[in-house]
Amino acid sequence: MAGVLPAQREVEIDGRPLKVFDGLLPNVGDYVQALSRAAFTRTEVAREDTAQYRHWATELKIDALVQQPIFEMTRRAVLGFSTPGHGYRPYRAYTNVAGYGDMLFTHTDCLPDQHDLTALWYLCDEWDVEWGGETVFYDASDELVCAVRPRPGRLVVFDGAIKHAGRPPSRICYVPRYTFAIKFERVALR
């Protein structure tokens, strides 16, 4: 088993970590091709008060996730967030798909005292900067602190209590914006 992966970019938002990794997934096209045939359902919601605006997602069982090569890269990136006596275990995996006109809202993925992590992969063959689709991250004052734009095989790992939102692609983008999310809970190591 290989060790911790180095991040290309690191940011702290209100004392909570966010790291960006590039170049980890040489076969990203295989994932994009598979997702183009996947069954998505409009079941995902950002927050309770936006439940009437559901967005498209497809789930992946954890047993299947841990057998995928993408999980090993994710696991190695997440190792860099571990602290003495604590590590992380995956509990949910799913892919979102968004297109021009979709509504995506700000939200957090966990409560502030949980310190769970979200690993978010951008699965695309190409992505033009003019297409938008960034994930934006906010501080406690709702000020935009960081934006991470889609790139083929880019991974961003962050504390799930950081408020964030995926932005839909612009009108000139004719490809779907796929993001593959793996949620990790913080666990005590024995």
Key terms for this structure?
single chain; 190 residues; mainly beta; Jelly Rolls; eight-stranded antiparallel β-sheet; three-stranded antiparallel β-sheet; iron; iron ion binding
Structure description:
The chain has 190 residues and is mostly beta strands. It has one domain: Sandwich (Jelly Rolls). The protein is 12% helix and 37% strand. It has helices at 28-35, 62-65, 69-79; strands at residues 9-13, 16-21, 41-44, 55-60, 86-98, 117-123, 135-138, 144-148, 155-159, 163-166, 177-188. An eight-stranded antiparallel β-sheet has the order 1-2-9-6-11-5-4-3. Strands 8-7-10 form a three-stranded antiparallel β-sheet, with no helix packed on it. The longest helix has 11 residues, at 69-79. The mean pLDDT is 94.
In short, what is this structure?
The protein is mainly β.
Q: Which oligomeric state applies?
A: single chain
- Estimated share of beta-strand residues: 35-45%
Give the radius of gyration.
16 Å
CATH C-level class is Mainly Beta
Strand order of the largest sheet: 1-2-9-6-11-5-4-3
Mean pLDDT: 94
**Name given to the CATH architecture:** Sandwich
Characterize the overall form: globular
Say what the CATH topology is.
Jelly Rolls
Low-confidence stretches: none
Task: Find the structural class using helix and strand composition.
Answer: mainly beta
Query: The biggest beta sheet, please?
Result: 8 strands, antiparallel
| Count of the separate structural domains | 1
CATH superfamily: q2cbj1_9rhob like domain
Q: Give the number of helices.
A: 3
Order of helices and strands: EEHEEHHEEEEEEE
Count of extended strands: 11
Report, as a whole number of angstroms, the end-to-end distance.
19 Å
Helix content: 10-25%
